[in-house]
Amino acid sequence: MENKRLLSTFTILLFLLISSITYAQLQGKARVDSLLVQLNKSNDDTNKVKLLYDLSDTYVEINPDEGIKYGVQGLELAEELNFKNIIAKINNCIGMNYDNKSDYPEALEYYFKALKKHEEEGSKKGIATDFTNIGVVYLHQSDYPKALEYYFKALKIFEELKLKNGIAYNIGNIGLVYWYQNNYPKALEYYLKTFNIFKELNDMYGIASSLFNIGNVYNRQKDYAKALDYYFKACNTYKDFGSAINLAPVLGNIGDTYFTIAKDSNKILLNKLFAGNKTTALQKAKIYVDSAIVIEKEYGNLRGLNGNYKLLSDIQLLLGDNKGALESYKNYTTIRDSIYNIEKTKSITQMQMKYEKEKNDAIFELELNRQKKLKYVFILGFIVVLGFSLLVFLQKKKISKAKEKLEIEKKRSDDLLVQLENSNLILEEKVKERTSELESINKDIIIAKDKAEAGDRLKLAFIQNISHEIRTPLNGIIGLNSILIDSNVSDEEKKEYYPLLQASSDRLLNTISDYLDISMIMSNNIEVNKSVLKLNDELFELKLKYEETCVGKKLLFNLQLPENTESLTINTDIKLFRKIMTNLIDNAVKFTLKGSITLGYTFVDNSFRIFVKDTGIGIGYETQDKIFENFMQEDISNTRGYDGSGLGLSVAKGYANLLGGNIFLESVKGEGSTFFFYTSKYPFNRKSNYSKKVRCYLQFR
């Protein structure tokens, strides 16, 4: 009976959530459609600027990329018209879109542009708003001192202007910084202040946010009854004004609190809420976490999904649902791996900075030793010169005492001066020779050090690569095989493990194939057998091959072909050509978490270039020359964010060279990469003239 009641509650809650999300999306889409219609009909540039600003502002919560596009168009037109009153607002709006994309450097750039305009205009309210937005970006980057600095600046101005809404938001933000710093009494003090102000203003969003934050403080202080009270108040307030995206963290925290009550055996609260029944508490926790996951999926919040899937797995495990717990944990690890690269990049940067410091310290030490040696040589030379000078002085004194021997002593003195000059010349030559030797030794030491370090890194990369990429799938095969032959495992459960066994086998096979391919390339044991290939048909087959993978990652796959090239053929080794293309596309799919992958070709002079373009993580300029080396990804540290042997691009480049061509890339870190495969030795035939206008005619998500 209790299970039926819980299922009914979950169904109603899920229906309300989906209805709320759908309603919010329909509202946003309806507003966007209305603004686009007005924009197309408008002939007044000033009105167009306002409409473009409204579109950018509307897209902040719906589609930040579209918001940036329309915001930039509006900014360019406003600057062209010198429409001063709106330039700062548009900069601020573009910054908010970048902030929602977690592109914090770009967000800060536009916020500071808005701040500069507001300072020129003398707009105190605008300046205070900019300070608040800049503080939010620093908070997202965990730079708490900077965040507090800008929040207090904004608060001071809002207090001067007596603008309660701005005062409330900044007091709440300051409380949030103290919460992140685990100063819960201070955080609660600020949260209660901001709640009272929002309540006075009847600001529903502010009231809901304050209630949620107060609940978080009580949760951390283990006062779960109060925490739940404030969570439910926040949940109801968010639902009342239709803010579905903000419901997810509240629902997740409610589920986590119920889970904690059941897990910690809090008898008083467990008896009060669930008549002492842990199972009922866990089932209730699962309902709220499932609801949070529905919303996080709808809005694509990877970090929220990551935490909620881990929590759901723990709940299912305690409920005895081992199968469900395993599936939830798989989802958790998949999402965790996709966001792992951000933290990994930070770690890599710190390691590089440490390495550069140690390297500079070593060079400084060598230079210091060289300077010390030169100093000693100089002192020795000075002593020698001083000694000779003293000898000359004594000799002259003797000459003055013995005038009768003046001519003889004078000649002796001249001889001594010549010897002194010769000695000085010899000494100078020795100093120069020694200095040159020391400089040569220092250079050799630095070169040898760099070569040794490069060799160590390559050896380490190879050992880690072969250890990880062969042992990992092999362990999976052995483990899954032991499960499949276990008579205690049911046939239905075995069917679920067959795809995992196949995936591990495929990964092991691909790894060994890569090693065999690179070995064949390096030993020059590959024969090129050319035949006729219809290029468009081949690229279309590649599109079909990768369709399922891209759909699973929610990526767009575009195929861009020149017009009137349906009959175009090339004379090439089809097997090698396919290996080149699959390695390039595999690389693009692996390192692209969102956006699109585009496959196609263009004509250049009497030849053509095939390209694979992605919107993935991109490759830093400093590592682009090394990316085609064996066992290389952009980083070869022992912490790997992506599987793979690191040989895919090496194999592709080797086969490209065998076909008389080459591969090069264009890439910007964080914006994506484009790999070009070209050769001037491809003869091609076409039955009709082609046009250089490119069209995209196939697309899927």
Question: Which terms summarize this structure?
Answer:
six-stranded mixed beta sheet, single chain, disordered N terminus, 701 residues, alpha+beta, three-stranded antiparallel beta sheet, extended, Heat Shock Protein 90
Query: What shape does the CA trace take?
Result: extended
Strand content: 5-15%
Can you tell me the residue ranges where pLDDT is under 50 for at least 5 consecutive residues? 1-24, 345-357, 636-640, 686-701
Number of strands: 9
Q: Output the radius of gyration.
A: 36 Å
Q: From the structure provided, what is the oligomeric state, counting identical versus distinct chains?
A: single chain
Spatial sequence of strands, sheet with the most strands: 6-7-5-4-2-9
Count of helix runs: 22
Helix content: over 70%
In round numbers, the mean pLDDT is: 79
Q: Which CATH first-tier class of the domain at 531-700 would you pick? A: Alpha Beta
Task: Report the end-to-end length measured between terminal Cα atoms.
Answer: 43 Å
Under the CATH scheme, the architecture of the domain at 531-700 is 2-Layer Sandwich
The chain-level structural class is alpha+beta
